[in-house]
Amino acid sequence: MLIKIVHQRRKTRRRPADLRRLLRYLFTPKLSRDPLPSPPRLLGPPVLHRLVTSTLPWGPGVDKAAADLTEQMVDYCRDARAGLDMPETWYVHMIFSFSPKASPALRDPPDGHVAPPPSHSQSANALRVVFDALDFLGWDPLQPGVFVCHGDRRHIHVHAVIVRPVEGGGLWDIMRMSRKQLWEIAQISTDVFGLPGVGRTAAQHQYRWLTFEHRDEV
User: Fold this and answer.
1) d(Cα 148, Cα 142) in Å, to the nearest integer?
2) Mean pLDDT of the chain, nearest integer
C-alpha cells in the first residue's frame, strides 16, 4: 500500500468551494464511452464519519450531498466556529493505494484482532486497512471525514477527506509528517493484514516521490 497526501506542499488557502468540487468528483461514477466493460469506479457507498446527509452522495443528488457535507465540515472546523479565518489546510485529502495484486486478498484479508464479518466486500476490507493506518498516523476520532473506495484503475484505492482542527480536539499535525514516515506506516499496515506489497513500477514511483520532498504531487 502507498499513502499520499494530495497537495501536501500547497501554498494557497483551501476554500469550501474546493471541498465541494472534490466531493463531487469522489462521488461521481466514471462515465466512459468505451463499449467494453470496465471496473466500477465506486466500489461501495461512501463512508461518513461524524457526518450525515439526507441525500444519497451519488446520482442526481450528488451536488446537494457535496454542498451539505461541505457545510458540516466547515461547521466542525475549530477556527470557523470561533469566528476566525480558517487555516490554509483546514482539511486533508489522502489517498491509500493498494497493489493490484492485493485485490483478491482484499476479499478476505487476515486480521488477528477482529473476527471475520459474516459478509464482506473489497470496499469494506480496504477501509479496515485504511482505518488501521490512520490510527498509526494519529487520527483523532473526533475529526469528521469522508471515505470513498474507487476501483477504476488497476489498483483499488481509498480517498480520505478529513477536517484537521476540530472543536474539542487538537490540530492533527499530519501535514508535517514526512513521505518516508507515510511509506513506513503503509508497510506496517500492509504487513499486519498480510497483503501483497507494491510491484517494481509502483516502488520506483514511490522512491521518486520520497526523494523529492519539495515537490507538490497531485
Assistant:
1) 19
2) 83
For the chain, which residues make up each domain, given as ranges?
A: 2-210
CA angle 24, 2, 21 (to 5 degrees): 10
Grid coordinates belonging to 19: 471541498
**Alpha-carbon span 67 to 64, nearest angstrom:** 5
Q: What is the pTM of this model?
A: 0.85
Q: Which CATH architecture has domain 2-210?
A: 2-Layer Sandwich (3.30)
* β-strand pairing of 145-150 with 91-97: unpaired
Q: Given this model, what pLDDT does residue 71 score?
A: 97
Location of C-alpha cell 511509506: 183
Residue 145 neighbours by CB under 8 Å, 6+ apart: 48, 49, 50, 51, 160, 161, 162, 163
